Amino acid sequence: MYVDLTRVEDEDFEAALPQLEAASGIIFDLRGYPQVSIGTIGHLIDEPVKSPQMWVPLVTQPDQQNLEFEFSTWEVEPKAPRFEGRIAFLTDGQALSYAETYMSIIEHYQLAEIVGEPTGGTNGNVNQFSIPGKYTLYWTGMKVLKHDGSQHHGVGIQPTIFVSRTIQGIAEGRDEQIERAIEAVKQSPTSAVHTLGSTTVRAADGMTMVYVPDGEFRMGITGSLADHPHAVALDSFRIDQTEVANNHYRRCVEAGTCRAPTTCSWGEPTYEDAARADHPVICVTWQNANAYCRWARGRLPTEAEWEYVARGPDSAIYPWGDEFDGTRLNSCDVNCPHRDQRVTDYDDGYALTAPVGSYPSAVSWCGALDMAGNVWEWVADWHGPYPLTRQTNPTGPESGSERVVRGGSWFDYNEYGFLRADNRHPYEPRAADHLVGFRCVVPAGE
Ligand SMILES: [Ca+2]
Ligand SMILES: [Ca+2]
């Protein structure tokens, strides 16, 4: 079923509810400004959702002196009937302002496939002044960030499936974006398997994901003040079996969503090296990693999820147990170019990065590989001291200046505990470094 949200109003929408409920696939066209209310999202959700926070400046004095902000956010409650079909939104640069608030909820909560091109990146209400001479000055009064605190302005909502219309298509009377959206809603969902040890392959990039059942563990480092141990309970999810490799990442670059990692802030990239297509992608910023996982219909793991995958319900120190074993991971071994840290006691086979999944004996309790060494991995959280009390699905501090990388790399040795599964390292999110890669998490239910 096709619904043009730029023309349909709430009344028409409500009249079509029986058909929408029964539809096996729905395409919502939001290539423009919506005429429907934000409440229409209620049919796509089971839990209440929120728009990103809007910062409304309170200007009381000239030159932005003593400028304060008032925060506002829109909430949407679930509404019956719940649409059960596969859903795609069409969007492009004609989606501005309120259209982008609407789409930001779709994007953040991953409520649908987003087909087309990025939205305008102009959210924030328009204000105007009339000045003598019949001139009107327009300015954006409100600051809008994305849900994760990153910039919206000039970035917009990114499609999960990037499709541009072409002159040839228009000449032939075709709409390539609708054609691709029809394909997307026709795809049958992969049936999810919910047992420890089960795997699924992700359509977007071919990545194998392992299922992680819900449970509880002790997160943190025994004896540490800032990183002190505390109980953490987590819901089930699925996580990439290995670090994301260059050949996975290439699919996102070719889709037009990801930056090709051809430059580094430190070290040399491997992305262009065909011989290292199965090595972890490196020289990616936190933002690059986050964009990739979004494109793959997932997200970066939270710090707690990452640590749970590495340590398990028994909170082991390494994925394989409590004793370090230099042959089970790629670290700064006898081959390592880093002379000061090279450990000559063992040979792991690699001087720099190793192909992902090279150490099957280091498999963690739920089937994940590369959790120790090879490359550090970005996680979603800002860095900050751990809370003192038991947490459920923690997402870390609300804000911060550094994100966190986990697991250590080919460049590290174990003396400072860098390769331990409980170790955490604060890191500048804009760094694109040859020691850092990532993996993604997707909800268990999809
Ligand atoms: Ca090595
Ligand atoms: Ca790793």
Annotation keywords:
2 domains, globular, 8 helices, four-stranded antiparallel sheet, 2-enoyl-CoA Hydratase, Chain A, domain 1, five-stranded parallel sheet, 23 strands, alpha/beta
Describe the structure.
The chain has helices at residues 10-15, 17-22, 98-108, 167-171, 176-186, 246-254, 286-295, 303-311, and strands at residues 2-4, 25-30, 49-50, 54-58, 68-72, 75-76, 86-91, 113-116, 126-131, 135-140, 143-144, 161-162, 199-201, 208-212, 215-219, 230-234, 237-240, 376-382, 391-392, 403-406, 425-427, 436-438, 441-443. It is 15% helix and 21% strand. By secondary structure, the protein is an alpha/beta fold. It has two domains: 2-186, 2-enoyl-CoA Hydratase, Chain A, domain 1; 193-446, paralog of FGE (formylglycine-generating enzyme), CATH 3.90.1580. The strands form seven sheets. It has a five-stranded parallel beta sheet with strand order 1-2-7-8-12, sandwiched between helices. It has a four-stranded antiparallel beta sheet with strand order 13-14-17-23, with no helix packed on it. A four-stranded mixed beta sheet has the order 21-20-18-22. It is built from eight helices and 23 strands. The protein binds calcium ion (CA) (2 copies). Residues 330-331, 333, 335-336, 348, 350, 410 line the site of one calcium ion.
